């Protein structure tokens, strides 16, 4: 299958993963087969007002709509650190039945890497090094007034080749902007239903999330701490630590 775009044609190679908002495929440039990318695809739904991919592509400032603004913002993000923790957007577009977003291809998630080890856990040095990069990515996201709300090892991945030691933050499908147009914190909602969000990620959800309370930047930090515990213990042995 080939997805055509004004910037290039992308040959779908294989499915990398899928979730509630769509699927991610490994693709290659038809003209330059050595160039491989990740393509996130989301079906168009009449019940959904805005595409989640649009959220990811405009995740810095929702009031900026042009491609030029998106590029300018992403340049700022990439300059936050010498080694950015955010993947580069290659292309974007829409078809009759779906939206697509072509991004820099990354390697295995931290969750997969951990489970591939005989001990099912990272060494102390690896856990601390990876956790620091995870927190840096979270900090950069917060600088622009957004919270992730779904931090977990599966939403972080290592780069490829020369970038294999860089940890990237992924999946902004349920990220939320917490600042208004004046740069002030938005008034918290009285009740927030997160039951759908907790499916599959309950171990890393913050206490506020469990209590259906509005989340903030500190909740991302709380989820990050639970990830650190998970990195340092085999699967299943941390079950008691995640009971509140």
Explain this structure.
ATP binds at residue 40. This is Protein kinase domain-containing protein. This protein is of the alpha+beta class. Helix content is 27%, strand content 22%. The protein has helices at 52-57, 67-78, 110-115, 124-143, 195-198, 207-210, 217-231, and strands spanning 2-4, 9-19, 22-29, 36-43, 89-94, 98-104, 146-147, 156-158, 167-169, 176-177. The longest helix is centred in the middle third of the chain and has 20 residues, at 124-143. It is globular, with a radius of gyration of 18 Å. The N and C termini lie far apart (47 Å).
Which term fits the overall shape?
globular
Q: What's the Cα radius of gyration? A: 18 Å
Q: What is the CATH level 1 assignment of the largest domain?
A: Mainly Alpha
Spell the H/E element sequence.
EEEEHHEEHHEEEEHHH
Strand content: 15-25%
User: How many beta-strand elements?
Assistant: 10
Largest sheet: 6 strands, antiparallel
CATH architecture of the largest domain: Orthogonal Bundle
Protein name: Protein kinase domain-containing protein
InterPro entries: CK1_Ser-Thr_kinase (IPR050235), Kinase-like_dom_sf (IPR011009), Prot_kinase_dom (IPR000719), Protein_kinase_ATP_BS (IPR017441)
Organism: Angiostrongylus costaricensis
Domain Protein kinase: 10-244
